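Input chain follows. Return structure tokens only.
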Amino acid sequence: MAEDYNGLTQPPPTVYPVQNIKVADCDFGTPADAAQPYYLYNVQGLTLDNVTIGGTIYNTTLSA
């Protein structure tokens, strides 16, 4: 049996990814870990358009 915020479940619920999000024209400053400026989990189609993180400009689409 699995347990989540709803209590015991069988089988555990399907957790669908966040999809098709666009972030544009943002500056997120300096990350705590410059070697890994972002972390994704269960995301599909995150588009960064003119997004600055730690002085680097990102124009890309990410999925994880």
